[in-house]
Amino acid sequence: MYRPILRWVFPPVALLCLLTPLHAQRPPRARPAPPYVPGQVVVGFARGDAGRATDVAAAVGAVPGKVIPRINAQVFHLPGGRDAAAAIAGIAKLPGVRYAEPNYRRRVLLAAPNDPGYNLIDYTVAPFNYDEEGVATYYQWTLHQIDAVQAWSIYPGVYYTQATKPTNAPKLAVIDTGIDWGGTDAIPHADFINAGGSSTDAAQGGQIDLAEGRNLISGALDPTDFADDYGHGTAVAGTAAASANNGTTLTSGIAGIGYHAQILPIKTFDSTGNGTEADTATSIVYAADHGALIINISAGDYFYSQAEQDAVDYAWSKGSLVVAAAGNEGDSNNRPMYPAALDGVVAVAATTWPDDYPASYSNFGYYITVGAPAGDASVVPLGFWGTWCTMPTEHVPLHDLGWPGEVAPYEYQFGTSLASPIAAGLASLYAAYKGITQGTPNGPLTIYQALCRGCDDTMGTPGWNPNVGWGRINAYHTLLEDDWRGSTVGGIRGQAKYKDTVVANATVKAYIPGNPTPVATATSKPDAMYQLTGLAPGTYDVQASYFGEKQTIYGVPVVASCDRPRVSFNIGVAVPTKGLAWVGTSGYESDGVDPDTGDPNVTTFTFKVQYTDPTGNAPRRARCLIQRKDCGATWQASRSIALTKESGDIATGAIYSGSATLANLVYKCRFDFQDSAGAAATGDPAAFQQGPMIDGRPWVCWTGATNFVSDGVNPDSGPAGTSFQFQVLYADSAGDAPATSQLLIRRDGRIFRRKPMSAAAAGDLRLGKVYRISCTLTDPGTYEYRFNFVDASGTALGPPANWTAGPTITGTAGVAITGLAAVPTPAGAQLTFILSGAANVTATIVNVAGRPIKTIVADKPLEAGLQTLLWDRRADSGLAVPAGLYLIRVTARTGDGGQVEALAAVNLR
Questions:
Q1: 879 Cα distance to chain centroid
Q2: Strand blocks (E) in 449-602
Q3: Would you call 709 helix, strand, or coil by DSSP?
């Protein structure tokens, strides 16, 4: 084991021992994790008495839960977080109850990792024997303190090897001085190599994303040099995500709380540990753009930077959460550290071992989110150990802070620089366990609040406090999401600017909706940040005012044991309207569809809309509804496309999009959003508008569903010299007029006429425009016809483009058919008509395209008078026909060769 070396990661400007009333007495230890689920009892009933569940519910006010089949047992949920142990005795005395017991936890029995730093006790540094209190002084006491192994037993449940480590593991960005991935000595640090491997490269089962790692100093996107020439970045990266159980050849290997992740190293600070806000902002944006869900920054200074705030806002909009060190000056909220104090950043303070004191050097104040273990070398005997962490295997300046010239691959370091990556590693672990990615709605908020709710209460305070925020993080309870801290209050925080300017003394008040009396009031700090504390869970309207101007954000949800961050104002500037809006002012941006036109069945159309909710809550539903219209048909539902957030911040307007490939039809679309409370979002995009245009072949269809409009001819038949009108509906999804619009007629199988057709004055070429032509026929015979429409895309499709039967020209007949009617019946259809005299009658069923379906009677002699014929809805083949429109053609022929014909339509359902 290497000789322990004590280091400060941030040399403090001023070291202030926090010998205040806070430290006047020993704070309570963190409570041990309960072995059972709080508020739940498992009850076993005697055989045949399972129905007594209502007795249990009545006796203790419990809510019946999961039933365990076959063994007469059931889980009950106790009201108001009542402790299970207190309720069990009463439940067990009820008739029919065999037993009542807590719902004991079970977990995968993952062994402790074999890393020596985790398993070995350090007896050499501290002169105080805390073993007498049953507290082992492990080198990596930090992981023991936050119940790391218990958390790892939940997720990932295994220790990875080079062969099993996923190459697409979640990315955890470390914005720092680089990392010892091999460096100038070509020796990769063993704690970034998984067991059985030889490479630190994540693409080969290692821990570091070498492909995307960058040197961004002065904004230069240098992909070749992010080696750590100071030492700080390696310490931070190892604390966050060193390999676990990797059997390192170095005898003092460690494990990182987020060993499941891959490290995205971004070199932002130089060999002296210095950098600029521009480089930091550039690095945050780079990390978010390259897939980092969690971004750690263990650096900072006292001066507020709008560039850094904008970068944090951008990262949040991309689904990334920034975690930052609170600072090592032992200072209060008069001197906040940035970027830790920025809106939406998890600001991490440092705590000590073994008693969870706030570290004497750790900053404190309004911006602190949580605490995390890092150690303290100055408050004796309250805590002496630092963080045992990874150091480069070659000489770097950070080694010289102890004994100059010595190179040790592991050393004790102190500072919030080490507290922050422990919190960041846990944030990544939780996100991976819950399946949260950059595309998960409200992902950063969910992670942020889970860190707070899983904390141990080390200060004995009911809510947030300025020393460690919501408490010292606990990995096990964060993954369980059991709100172990047990606080009954939450908070709201954000920034209250005035006309884009950071201002102090803006007044922020929280109201219960409908109540004019505020329940909490805060004043913005010089950086415009504010904090409302002690709020009971519920929904609040939050109002900010400055110079007499006001702005209100409605419906801000608050839950216990955490803050709701990023409830931010820009007083005096128009507030984004909640609801839907177009994403721009021209092209597809004005109608939501990109591209506007395309080829049928080939073009993928993207539907886009802007959704805004000043509360920042993601919508419960986000879809695009598409309707289609076949030629001549009514609008019908076609597609429902799920939309996902593409970019932007929901509080100020986020872009949602989704894609679909559409066939050669006419479309319209609208956007269907519900906010987090289930209310429908309003705005122009919520109403149907013209959808994408398909540059495909046009369509022709019948103009209606009855009489001649169902087959295109009026009248259907007549004697020689009758003038027939032919009518068709033409539609082109692109809205183009046809180059050819023609009626073709043939008699007895041969072309008889070609006649151009004219369009009616009214109508829409996209949805259907009527074309008509009249034609006088004199020669007796059977005619067929079709419509020939052509545009630049080709010949129109549809039934009227095929040859269709009719009309019929007859000679002078001594008989007439009147009162022809067809009525659908349960069995088919009934046909009635009146014959003026005796004739031989043929009745034939045809479809709308003129194709024969069934001959009911053929040349059957009938007398004059009312006639009734029945159709059994079957074709000549004997098969039943489908629902739809059918034509019944009745022909009466007399002995002298005269013939008359009538046509009726019937719609079968």
A1: 51
A2: 490-498, 507-511, 518-523, 529-535, 538-546, 549-558, 563-564, 569-571, 579-581, 593-594, 597-598
A3: helix
* DSSP, residue by residue, 727-740: EEEEE-TT-PPPSE
Cβ neighbours for 120, distance < 8 A, ≥ 6 positions apart? 1, 138, 139, 252
Instruction: Please tell me the least confidently modeled range out of 23-27, 228-232, 342-346, 709-713.
Output: 23-27
Both tokens of 647, joined, read 């970019």
Residue 86, helix vs strand vs coil: helix
- CA 606 to centroid of chain Cα atoms: 17
Q: How far apart are CA 51 and CA 59, in angstroms?
A: 14
Phi/psi class of residue 811: alpha, beta or left (left: φ > 0; alpha: ψ in -120 to 50)? beta
Angle at 712 between CA 707 and CA 713, to 5 degrees: 75
Lowest mean pLDDT among 285-294, 427-436, 499-508, 645-654: 645-654
Going by C-alpha positions, the residue among 468, 462, 272 that lies closest to residue 362 is 468
Distances (CA, A) of 514 to 425, 510, 518, 675: 42, 12, 11, 20
pLDDT exceeds 50 at position 24: no
Shortest CA distance to 809 belongs to which of 753, 862, 848?
753
Residues 621-630 have pLDDT tens digits of 999 999 988 7
End-to-end CA distance of the chain: 87
Rounded to whole angstroms, what are the CA distances from 710 to 787, 820, 873? 14, 16, 19
Residue 33: count of CB within 10 angstroms of its CB: 16
Cα–Cα distance, 187 to 209 (Å, whole number):
17
836 in Cβ contact with 862 (< 8 Å): no
Coil, helix or strand at residue 866: strand
**3-state secondary structure (DSSP) of residue 672:** strand
Model confidence at 42: pLDDT above 80: yes
Vertex 699 angle, CA 694 and 705, to 5°: 130
Q: How far apart are CA 551 and CA 402, in angstroms?
A: 53
The per-residue DSSP string of 10-66 comes to S--SS-----SGGGSSPPPPPPPPPSEEEEEEEEEEPTT-GGGHHHHHHHH-PEEEE
Q: Structure pTM? A: 0.70
Joined together, the tokens standing for residue 525 give 């700090």
Chain position carrying tokens 């932007």: 648
Exposed e or buried b per residue across 802-821, where buried means at least 16 C-beta atoms within 10 angstroms of its C-beta: eebbbbbbbeebebebeebe
Question: Which pair of structure tokens corresponds to residue 855?
Answer: 């001959």
Which pLDDT tens digit goes with each residue over 293-309? 999 999 999 899 999 99
